[in-house]
Each structure stands twice: as structure tokens, then as C-alpha cells.
């Protein structure tokens, strides 16, 4: 039985197609997912992300506990700022990718993926032992609503007195939105400017409805997981379960920069990761654009056009609205970059290698 | 509730068949129910004109943002026409699945016995939704 977010009835009243995602009943799309994707690129989209996990660490050593538990250097984060980081297993495999907000000197918020947050909360609890820090999984108390797109700031500004122009990318501040308390963060997963609003579960409907009302004149529309996936893929952002998993290290994923060997003390995964720092990985996360119209999808082999030998595997693929062609991310052997195809159900469809991301917004 | 026109025949795989009663040539498409569950259709691959298809065979595919599905031949016969307009604009499958979104035409040589009436197909969609 899938769990519902506080916004389920709102989604149903909007005619959403609901789907099970990581044990949650989530809106896949409300109407045309292409229209939702385009709304986020050109105006704004409204997302329910309440399936994400919110785990709090508090106490005088909360930062040190995170330095030990995660690969990043969180104790130096300024209050009000956020950082993208990862939690790894002792063998260096990625258990989840996370955003950590420092809310106050002694308070951090760890945002984990829906599929992983219970494990993340358990690992954080175990790893924080011996530190003066309390770990609390408060995922059930929170809803997360995101407004993303070039008009996001204009729309949100009508509902809050918070200093939005002064809020930097990867920063968050407590404020009031539509009369309810919220943590307002300038973060997202779409490749556009935008905000993520952490609110009490009981306030989710109010915040959603007010944003929908305020955004109406600006072209805002509700957007589902389908659009969220194509938006993040165009932006070259990894998805746990596709580009990241426990069998890959941050270095395998090309994200070795998140591993901070220069921080003090030991951290879980350090011993396994340290020798990998300067070793070029066998495969690299690569952007592919299909020449034809068939879509490379998760799990399809990447092959050489010449002899069909397998040189990689697609992790995510979709038709791209912004490029007008199918795109994919794939792990591909580092010694090949031309003459590639994707084996799409038995036929080898030519693809070109391009730099990631596929899409970058104009500033 | 997606529309299921009375006068058409259907397959369990969500194709519709028109013209079965009155002639040699039938028109085939996918149902509104199928189009809605696929989401925005971005690509359709159709069988070649002149080729023979056998009822139940996968003869093409329809691809959406999130998934890809086979198109099955609902009848046996020769493909006599394909809808080039829908190849060029696959969104017609979503906007007009029983009209401009038709896929191909077959000169019928054999009709399987398990084609469904509109009423029977309604039960299939009810069970799947």
C-alpha cells in the first residue's frame, strides 16, 4: 500500500495520473507532461516533493557528526547555506545523494531521497553515536513544495516578505509564505531558478493553493514526476537508482569533488575512497544525443557501431523537449567517444557524444 | 473516463479496428485509454506498406516520454496504407486517437475470434485502471 502526501486530494482534484514512486503515491502528470516541462522552462511549475526525507541533526557537535557520517565538509557550512553531498558505505559505494542545510549553528537539515531516507536516518543515527548530536527523522511532519522556473521568484514574492533577491543559490532562510511558516530554499532539480519550501504537513494544501493562485497569471502549472525527470535529465543531474547506486563510488559518477579529504578526522568511506582519488575510472558518465527518434532508455547497452561490442550502459534516457531529440546519460568506457550506438531493442541506433548538461539556462 | 466508440472492435492490447463489418480493408489505431496511460506520444513506428502482418504479431511501436509499447496487428493481412501524418506528428495519437491519430490499414485475410466489442473492451479498461 503506497503512502500519500498531504496533497493527494489536491492532485486528484486536478485530474492527476498518480503512480507509485518509492512507496509513495505521487502525481506522474496532470495533463501533458511536455506542457509541464515547457512551463518550467519558460514560466514556472509547481511540484509536490513531500516524499523526500527530512532528517534533523541538532547539538553542539552536529556539524562534526555530519563530517564523520558524510563525504562532505559540513561543519564549515555557514548558517543559512546548503550543500550537495553524499553518504557512502564503508566500501565507498554511494548510499544516497543529499542536500544538507545549516539552519543554525547547532541545527542541520539533511534532505534525502524518498527511496533511501529511512536507511539514511538509520545510518546517521548510528554514525552520530559518540558525538553531542541528536538525529531525528521528521519526514512525516514535513511537506515539500517546489516552485521552479524563470518566473518562480516573481510568483513567490507575492506571498512572502522574505528577501528573495538576496537569497543565493543553495541558501535557505526561515520565513512566512502565504501566512504559514516555511523554510525557503533556493534549490531545485530542474536546471532552472526556483525555490523549495519546507512546510508543516498540515500547511501543505494552503501553500500549494496560494502558489497556484498567485502563479496563474504567470503561466505556472502543476508539474508531475514525469516532467521532473526530463527536466533534471536535460540539466545533467544524477538520479539515485539510475546514475548513482551503492555499487558506484562518487568518483565513478564523476562527482569526486564532493569527497573532501581535506577535512579533519576520519569519515565513513575515507579508507576505501582515498586510493581512488587519482585513478581514472574505467567508465565515465557521458551525454548522448540520438540521431534518430527512438529513445535510449535505462539499462540499454551502449555499443560500437563497427562491431556491436558493448562499451557502456544507459542510465537515463528520454525525448528532450529542449533539444527536440532523444537524449541519454550513460556510463561509457573512457577510451571511446565516437562511432557509438545504443542497442534499442535489438537495433543499433547511432548516437553522438555531447558535453553535459544538455541544457543550461540563460542567466 | 476515456471514450470507447460503440462501432469499433478492440484488442486486449488496446488497439481499435474500424471497418471490420463492411469491407476488405480495416483501419487500426490505439485507444484513448492506451494513449492516456502512455502520456505524450513522441514517436510511432509503423509496419511497411506492402508487408504482411499476422494477427497478434508486434508490428510497430509507440513511444512516449516515459515508456515504449508494441503495436500488435489485430488482424492478418497486407498493410495497404500507413498514416504518414501521425509519423510526422505523433501527438495526434493523444489528441485524436480514433480520428487523425489512426496508424495503418490492413486488407484483411483473417480475423481472429478474440476481438472485443466496445462493451467487452470497457471491462478490460476498468480492470486495468
UniProtKB/TrEMBL annotation, chain A:
Molecular function GO terms recorded: aminomethyltransferase activity; transaminase activity
Aminomethyltransferase C-terminal domain mapped to chain residues: 283-359
Record GO biological process: glycine decarboxylation via glycine cleavage system
Keyword annotations of the record: Aminotransferase, Transferase
Catalytic class of the enzyme: transferase
Top-level lineage group: Bacteria
Keyword Transferase: yes
Subunit structure: The glycine cleavage system is composed of four proteins: P, T, L and H.
Function of the protein: The glycine cleavage system catalyzes the degradation of glycine.
Stated family: Belongs to the GcvT family.
PANTHER family in the cross-refs: AMINOMETHYLTRANSFERASE, AMINOMETHYLTRANSFERASE, MITOCHONDRIAL
Listed name of the protein: Aminomethyltransferase
Higher taxonomy: Bacteria, Bacillati, Actinomycetota, Actinomycetes, Streptosporangiales
The encoding gene: gcvT
Automatic annotation (TrEMBL), chain B:
Signal sequence annotation: none
UniProt cofactor note: Binds 1 lipoyl cofactor covalently.
GO biological-process terms attached to the record: glycine decarboxylation via glycine cleavage system; protein lipoylation
One GO cellular component term: cytosol
Ranges for domain Lipoyl-binding: 25-107
Cofactor: (R)-lipoate
Modified residues (N6-lipoyllysine): 66
Pfam families hit by this protein: GCV_H
Segments traversing the membrane: none
Alphabetical UniProt keywords: Lipoyl
InterPro entries in the cross-refs: 2-oxoA_DH_lipoyl-BS (IPR003016), Biotin_lipoyl (IPR000089), GCV_H (IPR002930), GCV_H/Fam206 (IPR033753), GCV_H_sub (IPR017453), Single_hybrid_motif (IPR011053)
Function per UniProt: The glycine cleavage system catalyzes the degradation of glycine. The H protein shuttles the methylamine group of glycine from the P protein to the T protein.
PANTHER family xrefs: GLYCINE CLEAVAGE SYSTEM H PROTEIN, GLYCINE CLEAVAGE SYSTEM H PROTEIN-RELATED
NCBIfam families: gcvH, PRK01202.1
Oligomeric and partner information: The glycine cleavage system is composed of four proteins: P, T, L and H.
Family of this protein: Belongs to the GcvH family.
Name of the featured protein: Glycine cleavage system H protein
Gene designation per UniProt: gcvH
Amino acid at each position: 500500500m503506497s503512502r500519500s502526501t498531504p496533497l493527494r486530494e489536491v492532485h486528484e482534484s486536478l485530474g492527476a495520473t498518480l503512480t507509485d514512486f518509492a512507496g509513495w503515491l505521487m502525481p506522474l502528470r496532470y495533463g501533458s507532461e511536455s506542457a509541464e516541462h515547457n512551463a518550467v522552462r519558460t514560466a514556472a511549475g509547481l511540484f509536490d516533493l513531500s516524499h523526500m526525507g527530512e532528517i534533523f541533526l541538532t547539538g553542539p557537535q552536529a556539524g562534526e557528526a555530519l563530517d564523520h557520517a558524510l563525504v562532505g565538509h559540513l561543519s564549515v557550512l555557514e548558517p543559512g547555506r546548503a550543500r550537495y553531498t553524499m553518504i557512502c558505505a564503508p566500501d565507498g559505494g554511494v548510499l544516497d545523494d543529499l542536500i544538507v542545510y545549516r539552519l543554525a549553528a547547532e541545527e542541520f537539515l539533511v534532505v534525502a531521497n524518498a527511496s533511501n531516507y529511512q536507511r539514511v536516518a538509520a545510518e546517521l543515527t548510528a554514525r552520530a553515536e559518540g558525538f553531542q548530536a541528536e538525529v531525528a527523522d521528521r519526514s512525516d511532519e514535513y511537506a515539500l513544495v517546489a516552485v521552479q522556473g524563470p518566473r518562480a521568484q516573481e510568483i513567490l514574492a507575492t506571498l512572502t516578505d522574505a528577501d528573495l533577491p538576496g537569497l543565493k543559490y543553495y541558501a535557505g532562510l526561515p520565513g512566512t509564505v502565504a501566512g504559514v511558516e516555511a523554510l525557503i530554499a533556493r534549490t531545485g532539480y530542474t536546471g532552472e531558478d526556483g525555490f523549495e519550501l519546507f512546510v508543516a504537513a498540515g500547511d501543505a494544501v494552503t501553500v500549494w493553493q496560494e502558489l497556484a493562485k498567485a502563479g496563474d497569471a504567470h503561466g505556472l502549472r502543476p508539474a508531475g514526476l514525469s516532467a521532473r525527470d526530463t527536466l533534471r535529465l536535460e540539466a545533467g543531474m544524477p538520479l539515485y537508482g539510475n546514475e548513482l547506486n551503492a555499487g558506484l563510488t562518487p568518483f565513478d559518477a564523476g562527482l569526486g569533488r564532493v569527497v573532501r579529504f581535506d577535512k579533519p578526522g576520519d569519515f565513513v568511506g575515507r579508507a576505501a575512497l582515498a586510493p581512488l582519488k587519482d585513478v581514472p575510472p574505467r567508465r565515465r558518465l557521458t551525454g548522448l544525443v540520438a540521431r534518430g527518434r527512438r529513445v535510449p532508455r535505462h539499462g540499454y547497452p551502449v555499443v560500437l557501431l563497427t562491431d556491436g561490442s558493448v562499451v557502456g550502459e544507459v542510465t537515463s534516457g528520454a525525448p528532450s523537449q529542449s533539444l527536440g531529440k532523444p537524449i541519454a546519460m550513460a556510463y561509457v568506457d573512457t577510451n571511446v567517444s565516437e562511432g557509438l550506438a545504443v542497442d534499442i531493442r535489438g537495433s543499433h541506433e547511432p548516437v553522438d557524444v555531447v558535453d553535459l548538461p544538455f541544457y543550461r539556462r540563460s542567466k | 473516463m476515456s471514450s470507447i466508440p460503440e462501432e469499433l472492435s478492440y484488442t486486449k492490447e488496446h488497439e481499435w479496428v474500424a471497418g471490420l463489418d463492411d469491407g476488405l480493408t480495416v483501419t487500426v489505431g490505439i485507444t484513448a485509454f492506451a494513449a492516456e496511460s502512455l502520456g505524450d506520444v513522441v514517436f510511432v513506428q509503423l509496419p511497411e506498406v506492402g508487408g504482411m502482418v499476422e494477427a497478434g504479431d508486434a508490428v510497430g511501436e509507440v513511444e512516449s516520454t516515459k515508456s515504449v509499447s508494441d503495436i500488435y496487428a489485430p488482424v492478418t493481412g497486407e498493410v495497404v496504407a500507413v498514416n504518414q501524418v501521425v509519423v510526422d506528428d505523433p501527438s495526434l495519437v493523444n489528441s485524436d486517437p480514433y480520428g487523425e491519430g489512426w496508424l495503418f490499414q490492413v486488407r484483411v485475410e483473417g480475423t481472429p475470434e478474440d476481438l472485443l466489442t466496445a462493451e467487452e473492451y470497457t471491462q478490460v479498461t476498468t480492470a486495468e485502471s
